[in-house]
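Dear colleagues,

For the upcoming journal club I promised to circulate an example of a predicted protein-ligand complex. I picked one with zinc ion because it came up in last month's discussion. The inputs are reproduced below in full, followed by the predicted structure.
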Amino acid sequence: MKPVSKQIAVMNLLEIDGIRFYSEHLAQFSLGNGGWASALCPFHNDHHPSFAVNVYGGAYICRACGVRGPSFVSFVMALEDVSFKKGLRYLENYHG
Ligand SMILES: [Zn+2]
């Protein structure tokens, strides 16, 4: 199994509330159509909402600095600079 699909499978098991998760982690969070939301990018000094996130799968991409990832856990790994395992634990604690 490839790492990305494994991450998504794990996230489905955790049933992360993506709207709550991203709205609590991102400034100027604004939900749009199709599960996509915009917000200020936490990975560069963003002045306009350049950051797009999917509240269902957790995928994210920044139109300004180009950072991107496929899932909630990859977002946590990048934001907190932690391993996959620690990222999962972060989400488990958040969920619980
Ligand atoms: Zn950015």
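Two points we might discuss: The longest helix spans residues 3-14. The chain has a mean pLDDT of 89.

See you all on Thursday,
B. R.
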